[in-house]
Design goal:
This protein is of the alpha+beta class and 1017 residues long. The protein has 32 helices and 22 strands. 45% of the residues lie in helices and 12% in strands. The strands form 8 sheets. The protein has a 4-stranded antiparallel beta sheet, covered by helices on one side. Strands 1-2-3 form a 3-stranded antiparallel beta sheet. Helix 3 crosses helix 8 (255-264), helix 22 packs across helix 24 (658-673) and helix 26 (764-780) packs antiparallel against helix 27. It is globular and about 140 Å long. The termini are far apart. Residues 194-227 are annotated as: Disordered.
Length: 1017
């Protein structure tokens, strides 16, 4: 048989047929002819031959009938597909809705307390009651109990969700065997294996769900309890964060039953991991929905998921190679003894091609590249593909939309009590209230502000030239280049500090702490230089407390006379920063610095020019200091929107040397009062603007009056308080018990204690390090081991509330609790000066397969072996580790080497000299990996905040106003980075923790910089 057209190729288009294609198909079918051959008998043996072809009447009739019925067939196919799509859409939406409701309700169930256990007990008792087990002690019935029947399990009640034949098939229920229900109850509350947990991938969950559905459809399982006609819902582990893990059985349930099903089938480890969820701080009039609050309660340190990348190791190696080439180049050129101060280091904006090293040095780096390539090849692909984002990831798009729609912003809070959600206009109004206080600020025109900044730039340039021309040693440290690091290239594009306020949510009514961040301002290097120079003076001043460890180290050594009465006296310097008389402060600090500098000077007129501590050099340094302190702290300009203001009084929080100036200003009056020599003062110390004293006196009034009349700062008001029993100071409560001095940790009211949650994508070693750091901090804050043990119990409970597995927390605790206590007051002193070589990268799981020590060993051992063989004239061309002799025709860039850094080798019996890496200390260096954090919630909160403020500018422009100048916010760029980093499954919600950086004095104790008493009450 032959065909004029291919029927098969036409039917290939059937599944994707549209109305137009239907018509074309039918038209093609009308042109279809099917011929049959005609045979002629040739002889008596039955041999036939084809004579010609004729049209088959039967096939023609069948084709005509098919042509007639095809439109109806196409219509039915479309209806079936549309019905399937509709059913799937409804199913997906109901699962998502159920998951969202269950997740919100689960957050309440997982709050601190017995709620989780109550949820378990309630579900278990309900199941046991339905099973009709009878009371304990009675003889159980021998008959098998009836299965659990739920009216909502009848699919006939929900025709929209199922096919008619399935409704018919589900109308007959089979008898279920007893053992399955017992196993269901046991599995429902069993903990997951340690290697599973909520990090399990979506694909595995899908496979599990599909497997269980197949078993139910085939009627397999213990006692045939998984028959498709069963009305008993078998146990399936579900996770609300992954709606597709919820079985289809919930589609036939009521909303309440579906949510209960999700709760009872969620693994306990998943419930525990979600305990972090709570409310967040809100400014007046702000209402945050529960689901948004749950996401935000992760804290600003929550770090988002980033796809693991093997190329990260090679990128870090390439960057390291570039830096170590330059390091080798400059060490050979300038020697190891050249002065260098990393605090004055300025990164070069131009990336020049690194120098070429001698061939044997290049081969050492090639050995390192081989190790890196082997490491990358050894990382199993399946291990990387299994790494997925954790559950409870914040819904980034939903949070962003909520903030923008309501004009809300996320900010930090004073005293680090947790993040706060505030209304945009409320923030702006309170910030402008601060700036419009004429006692502290005055508004400037833009042209005037530009002139001030231009004057600052010229002064910084002059200061840099002074360093270059008059002080050789400061110039060698890179100070002149550092002074020019923030000078704009065009001389006019100045960066202004952006004024903002931090809400004081612990104050009623809420106050604001003014912040003027000057890190990128043209004159900030001068303030940094002043701060660095004042650090030795501050360290040597006994009345200044340098932190909690310093305070309690002193108190642990304090001996109080038990025969005398003693009291606690505390003082708070009201609005310390802005109330400091600036001119007087600069005069006092310069006088203290001059005295300290001259006392450290060495008189040696013959060698003054080569002695960095000579009187001649120190006098030049004193002049540089006085000019730097003037440039960095006077005429401070700040920007708020399109308006510019100048601070009129005191110091500003945000300038690098403000804490140092404030400390020494107070120390001047404390030294003058001789408070430390007073016979009735057992102890006195001050941390920035908080004072603490232990005073011998006959009464509280006498103790208070003694300190009040002794400690006075010009221009400042100090509010004093006295107690005979105890007081709160810094992060501790210091108290008297049985006549002895004790202290214990203190948690400020309203502190949300936002530790890094377990579900954050920080590496495990970082989470462990943070926990151990907490142990060390608590050991210092506890005066006795009994108090310490109680504080550790509280810490462990806090970490469990943040979702950490109990066995893991207890393991960390047992391994470190004793050591942290014994070393609580130990000083960290480096055992020896060692060189460190750093591979710079970011957090990623691929570094679990990498060893920086092995990389360093591979490279340095090759270099050591080459020198040992070269000194004996022994070379080899082994491809795996070639020890080649120097090639005279090989061109490299080490053509300027100090003579003492050469070594002698043998080449073909002749002596040659080559640069010796052993003499610049690199072969004994320690190799480490330094990782920076990935995107966290704090980063996105800043982007969202700028987006909300930019929306205000656009609204002003639409109404005919002037758009204020704001910093450009490339939100698309940030979003693209986040989305590229996530690469998460489509069933999951959209989303993206620092290792927490060391805290500065300002960040650790932000209790200064208040503009007036009215904002403190």
């Amino acid at each position: 048989m032959s065909k004029n057209k291919s029927v098969g190729s036409t039917f290939d288009r059937l599944p994707c047929a549209t109305s137009t294609r239907d018509t074309l198909f039918i038209r093609d079918l009308s042109n279809l002819t099917i011929n049959i051959d005609r045979f002629v008998i040739v002889d008596n043996k039955g041999v036939r031959r084809i004579t010609d072809w004729v049209v088959s009447p039967q096939k023609k009739a069948e084709c005509s009938a098919l042509q007639t019925i095809l439109p109806a067939i196409f219509s039915h196919i479309k209806q079936i597909v549309n019905l399937r799509h509709r059913a799937l859409a409804i199913k997906i939406e109901k699962k998502r809705s159920t998951a969202a409701t269950a997740d919100v309700e689960m957050a309440d169930a997982t709050k601190p307390g017995p709620s989780i256990q109550s949820l378990i007990d309630k579900g278990l008792n309900a199941r046991l009651k339905k099973l009709n087990l009878g009371s304990v002690g009675k003889k159980a019935s021998s008959r098998n109990p009836s299965p659990i029947i739920l009216d909502t399990n009848y699919y006939s009640n929900y025709p929209d969700f199922v096919w008619p034949e399935f409704v018919q098939g589900s109308s007959t229920s089979g008898q279920e065997s007893w053992p399955f229900e017992i196993q269901t109850l046991v599995d429902a509350f069993a903990e997951e294996a340690p290697n599973q947990g909520f990090q399990q991938g979506r694909q595995q969950e899908e496979r599990e769900g599909e497997s269980s559905r197949q078993e139910r459809s085939k009627g397999k399982g213990k006692g045939k309890s998984l028959d498709a006609r069963s009305n008993v819902v078998p146990f399936t582990s579900v996770r609300p964060a992954f709606p597709n893990s919820i079985p289809d059985d919930i589609l036939t349930m009521t909303k309440t039953d579906a949510v209960s099903f999700v709760h009872l089938h969620t693994p306990i480890s998943f419930l525990l991991a979600g305990q972090y969820r709570s409310s967040v701080h809100c400014s007046p009039g702000v209402v945050v929905p529960v689901d948004i609050a749950n996401d935000l309660s992760l804290g600003l340190n929550y770090m988002f998921f980033t796809l693991p990348s093997q190329s990260l190791i090679m990128q870090a190696w390439n960057d390291f190679q570039r830096r170590i080439r330059w390091r080798i180049y400059f060490l050979f050129k300038e020697g190891m003894n050249k002065p260098f101060d990393p605090d004055y280091g300025v990164s070069s904006k131009k990336k020049e091609k690194p120098p070429v090293l001698p061939q044997y040095m290049e081969l050492g780096l090639s050995m390192g590249r081989r190790y890196v390539q082997r490491t990358i090849a050894s990382i199993p692909e399946e291990a990387l593909t299994e790494m997925r984002k954790h559950a409870f990831s914040p819904k980034r798009d939903k949070i962003r939309k909520f903030l923008i729609d309501n004009n809300y912003v996320i900010t930090m809070t004073d005293k680090n009590l947790g993040l706060a959600v505030s209304e945009r206009d409320w923030i702006l109004r309170n910030e402008l209230n601060l700036l419009e206080d004429e006692r502290n600020y005055e508004e400037l025109e833009f042209e005037v502000a530009q002139e001030v900044m231009k004057s600052k730039m010229i002064q910084m340039q002059t200061l840099a030239r002074t360093v270059e021309d008059e002080h050789l040693f400061l110039f060698e440290l890179g100070l002149s280049r550092f002074f020019l690091s923030n000078v704009p290239e065009d001389g006019s594009s100045f960066k202004y500090p952006q004024f903002h306020g931090i809400p004081k949510i612990h104050k009623k009514p809420t106050g604001f702490r003014p912040i003027i961040p000057c890190h990128s301002v043209v004159f900030n290097p001068a303030a940094k230089f002043v701060s660095k120079e004042l650090k030795p003076i501050i360290k040597s001043t006994p009345s200044i407390i340098h932190g909690t460890k310093d305070l309690f180290t002193r108190l642990s050594q304090l001996r109080i006379d038990p025969k005398r009465q003693w009291y606690f006296v505390t003082g708070d310097v009201v609005a310390f920063y802005p109330n400091i008389p600036l001119d007087l402060c600069i005069e006092i600090v310069c006088s203290m610095y001059e005295e300290w500098l001259l006392n450290a000077s060495e008189e040696n007129t013959a060698l003054a020019h080569i002695n960095p501590n000579s009187l001649e050099n120190n006098l030049v340094k004193l002049g540089i200091f006085k000019r730097a302190i003037e440039i960095g702290n006077t005429q401070l300009i700040t920007q708020h929107g399109s308006r510019y203001f100048r601070q009129k009084n005191g110091l500003a929080m945000g300038v690098a040397d403000s804490p140092d100036l404030a400390n020494l200003f107070g120390a001047h009056f404390e030294i003058k009062s001789k408070i430390l020599d007073h016979p009735n003062v057992a102890f006195y110390g001050r941390y920035i603007d908080d004072c603490f004293a232990i005073v011998y006196a006959e009464s509280e009034a006498l103790a208070l009056n003694l300190i009040k009349e002794t400690i006075k700062f010009d221009g400042c008001v100090i509010e004093w308080a006295v107690s005979s029993s105890g007081c709160q100071f810094l992060d501790a409560f210091i108290f008297k018990e049985s006549g002895k001095l004790h202290w214990k940790p203190f948690v400020k009211t309203g502190n949300n204690r936002e530790r890094v949650p377990w579900v954050s994508h920080h590496p495990l070693d970082v989470k462990r390090g943070v926990y151990i750091g907490e142990l060390s901090r608590l050991a210092v804050l506890c005066s006795t081991k009994e108090i310490y043990i109680g504080a550790i119990r509280d810490l462990n409970a806090l970490y469990l509330m943040r979702g950490y597995p109990e066995n893991l927390v207890m393991s960390w605790c047992k391994k470190n609790i004793q050591e942290r206590w014994e070393k609580r007051f130990a000083l960290r002193i480096a055992e020896h000066d060692e060189s460190i070589l750093v591979l710079k990268t970011r957090f990623d799981q691929v570094w679990n397969w990498f060893s920086a020590a092995e990389l360093g060993k591979t490279v340095t051992e090759y270099w050591s072996a080459w020198y040992e063989h070269a000194e004996k004239g022994l070379y080899s061309v082994d491809s795996s580790r070639p020890l080649i002799k120097p090639d005279p025709n090989y061109v490299h860039d080490l053509d300027d080497v100090r003579p003492e850094l050469f070594t002698q080798i043998l080449v073909d019996g002749e002596t040659e000299f080559v640069p010796d890496l052993r003499k610049i200390g690199l072969l004994g260096s320690r190799w480490i990996v330094s990782r920076k954090r990935n995107t966290n919630l704090f980063d996105l909160a800043n982007v969202w905040k700028k987006t909300v403020f930019r929306k205000l500018d656009e609204d002003i422009a639409e109404k005919g106003g002037v758009v204020p100048e704001t910093q450009n916010v490339n939100e698309t760029y940030h979003s693209a980075l986040v989305e590229a980093a996530e690469q998460i499954s489509i069933e999951s919600d959209n989303e993206i923790i620092l290792h927490r950086r060391s805290i500065s004095q300002e960040r650790e104790h932000p209790e200064f910089g208040r503009i007036s008493k009215s904002y403190n009450r």
